[in-house]
Amino acid sequence: MEQFSGKTVFPGIAWGKACVLVKQALAIDTSPSSDPDGEWKAFTSSIKTADDQLEELYEKTKKEVGEEEALIVDVQRMMLQDDDFLEGVENLVRNGSSRAAAAVDRMGKEFYEQFAALEDPYMRARASDIADIARRLTAILTGTDTAFSLTKPSVVIAEDLSPSDTLAMDKKLIRAFVTRQGSTNSHTAILARILKIPSIVQASVPLNKNFEGKAAAVDGHTGILYLEPDAETEKNLKKQEETDRAEEKSLEVLKGLPTVTKSGKKIELAANIGGVEDLQAVLDNDAEGIGLFRSEFLYMGRNDYPGEEEQFAAYKAAAEALKGKRVVIRTLDIGADKQAEYFGLPEEENPALGYRAIRICLDRTEMFKTQLRALYRAAAFGKVAVMFPMITSVWELRRCKELAAEAKKELTDKGISAGELELGIMVETPAAALCTEELAKEAAFFSVGTNDLTQYTLAIDRQNAHLEKYLDTHHPALLKLLGMIAENAHKAGIWAGICGELAADGTMTKTFLSMGYDELSVSPSFILGLRKQIREMA
Ligand code: PEP
Ligand code: MG
Fold first, then answer.
1. Catalytic: 221?
2. Predicted local confidence at residue 195, as pLDDT
3. How far apart are CA 51 and CA 40, in angstroms?
4. What angle do CA 225, 162, 69 make, to 5 degrees?
5. Cα 193 off chain centre by
């Protein structure tokens, strides 16, 4: 047996086969070639291989997903025939002494930049196809295998995982995540908690391919990964599993009971979700509403923007499932660690301080209004509220509200029914927190995003595993801001909640209640435990 420890993200015991994910870097030789003809031949043969691979993928996608989705693959096949691309590569290979892989890489990047800068959203979205096809060709030319998929229930061991890596995997087969990097506040950690996947970050495990396929167990309570656990360990883990099950069962009796302290102080316990697949967990855990629907996950792990109908269907499903309880949907918060290539976002020095969330939506207004129309339509089927992320100034909120009004008018002009939306904001920047008095005049509610508010207040990148010793989530500066936000909300007669991960920190619950917070929104699996704690409070 071997064991490795790290920091726990979600407690629980998991079993599976170790699956070591090593992302292959493409080793591209940029030195000049002395054999232009040979390089050109290698290139034309890589085109043929890529075309064969795509043809196979086309058939598979058509059979498993649908004809329309398969067309995405066809678009890529067409790109393989693009004259400008082929000429560009030929020129670099024949006249510039470039090796085929280096030429493809360079042309791919040039084309990517050109497409990413285009106005038309459809054409802009093709940038990611270009990146994909260039990577496929360079992988073939350098003999790199880039495919990764799970085939059996797995304990995934990786250097780090981005939210899109996670989304691309078959969730039914992920038993646990163990990463060498990563922080407990990253979006992948948040996803793991929502999906109830026992996970460990900052684990001391090497990415050793010899581990592949070995029996693995993860103890999400202690943060330990076991490879080929011995009989004694297996017995202890099974015992812990039983305790977990009993604990879960003991919380069942709290379903249907109000979240209220002994002295009668009430607080709403809502759920954070990443998409409609989490609705069952919301209902199973008796959430009193949805306090954060992270709508950006609808935009990720795909090649093009989701349309109005698709978004409407998702928001309507949430509104209907909650049967009149409030569903707070956050508008698109893409950027920083949450990326989708088809957005063609520029590379940035400081992505967390860069082009993300509302900053993109206020530029790409047609895309934003598509989402807003879907939200207004869903509001006809339940109690829907909308919040805007990353607000720093009052004018941004005013502009969001103007666009919301335009979106609503576009619907009613066409005779399409639109419901009412409460329009609030996430308070997740120090600027917003410090301006809550002014913002409260324009917002219907505040929901505090403590994950970002912490990173921006303490100047600590939430992704950076090395900074966790400085990451004091109870820092007095944060507590001052939290107190101020609730106070300013209540002075203006609006409600305030917390939807960052801190909302689930049981050691803070009393403080949040005394600050007067009206709502706490947490991963569904934390709801009943918090309700128990609150009901036992004086
Ligand atoms: C937050 O910042 O606290 C938040 C809830 O949003 P996200 O974690 O998705 O950035
Ligand atoms: Mg945030």
1. no
2. 82
3. 17
4. 120
5. 12
Q: Single out the residue of 480, 490, 476, 477 nearest to residue 519, CA to CA.
A: 490
Average pLDDT, the chain: 91
How much distance in Å is there from the Cα of 349 to the middle of ligand 1?
21
Q: Which residues line ligand 1 (CB under 6 A)?
A: 190, 292, 294, 333, 428, 449-452, 499-500
Pocket test for ligand 1, best of 297, 451, 499 (most atoms within 8 A of CB): 451
- Look up residue 264 and give its amino acid: G
* Catalytic residue list contains 19: no
Taking a C-beta distance cutoff of 8 angstroms, is the pair 170, 190 a contact? Answer: no
Reply yes or no on whether the pLDDT at 520 is more than 90: yes
Q: Which atom of ligand 1 lies at the shortest distance from residue 499's CA?
A: 5
Distance spanning both ends of the chain, measured CA to CA: 47
Determine what percent of the chain is predicted with pLDDT higher than 70. Answer: 95
Residue 441 CA, ligand 2 centroid: distance in Å = 22
SS3 content of the chain, % helix, strand, coil (to 5): 50, 15, 30
Q: What is the pLDDT averaged over residues 315-340? A: 95
Residue 287 one-letter amino acid: A
| pLDDT reported for residue 66 | 60
Least confident of 48-52, 400-404, 528-532: 48-52
**Comparison of pLDDT for 473 and 121, the residue scoring more:** 473
Determine which residue's CA is closest to atom 10 belonging to ligand 1. 452
Could you tell me if 314 and 351 are in contact, meaning their C-beta atoms sit under 8 angstroms apart?
Answer: no
The pLDDT confidence band at residue 60, using thresholds 50, 70 and 90, is low
Largest CA distance in the chain: 84
d(CA 118, CA 20): 39
Ligand nearest to C-alpha 194: 1
Q: Which atom from ligand 1 is nearest to the alpha carbon of 500?
A: 3
Cα–Cα distance measured from residue 436 to residue 420, given in angstroms and rounded to the nearest whole number: 24
The two three-digit tokens of residue 290, written as one number: 């949805």
pLDDT beyond 70 at 379: yes
